[in-house]
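Quick note —
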Amino acid sequence: MPELTSNSISVDSIEERLYRLLRMQNNIATNAVALGIVGDVLVWAGGCHTRFSDAITEAQVESGESVDETLVLHDKFAVALDYYQQTKDILSAFLQQFKPDKILLASYGINKQTPQTYNGLIEAAESIIETNDRLVAALDPRVIAAGIITNLTAQKDGLLVEIEKSGIEQRQSDVAFQKQHTYYIEDTAKLRFIFNVACMVWGNDDPKLKDLGFVPASEIWTPGMPVPGQANWPDKVENMQAKKGLPPIDHGIMVSWDPLNLAFNYKIFKTKVPSGSPRPVRPAMPWFSELTEVAMFDNDVAVGFVYYYWVCGTNEEGVEGAFSDAMMEWVG
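Predicted structure written out below.
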């Protein structure tokens, strides 16, 4: 990654935080005595990068496993939904040979729209199963083949199992991301403490600050100065990403990109297509314009869709630079 350009520790990106912590872990032993860093803070500094890096890895692994299990759940849901629809169609056709009975239709639930949610499908399947079992016990002829009901029961039970597995994986993923977030907050406080101590002992422009992951005052970037390693407007923004947001605001997609030197602000465009659809073209109207931030959180997402985002820098007259893009399929 490029050299750090500020001491804005509390708003570090993950890459910036890892860089600071690596410098801190590698060099604290050499500087601890001069700065009077002892005890728990010294122990933390000696392993801070390893701790945070391991937490990130764990969160990524758990997130991947959660996504994989969610995909399995989606596949199981699609199969169960198809079987339910077939059962509903067969049952509807079969009941036409009997006198119309609105109460029975309501009991079976076949006069309702086909559900599109996990719990809705389970409830709909249970309505058919329970009504069928009741009528069988009463020797009522308005029932369909036992094998169909057996298979519907198996589909419903299998879906319940996958929902539980997916829930467990999601909870484990949430716990892992929460650990990463907690470490980030704790590390921010400790980094800020050591930075303040170092500035008091060495001064705020000492080159040794860089050894601990900080930036000497004379090297801090200010607007209007070139940023080392970053593109200049109208170049494309770099490192554009679309990822699931971190807890506690994880029901959505976090779109982010690196600052673009000389860009006055940014425009971001968004569109969505059903999963499996061809790649769409960029829409004519922006989702947001005149952005000064380099990140947007999108909580208007739904399962089964792929979301595409485009970002460009603009100058003071609103002239657009080159576009970068990112995409993510929302799996919940």
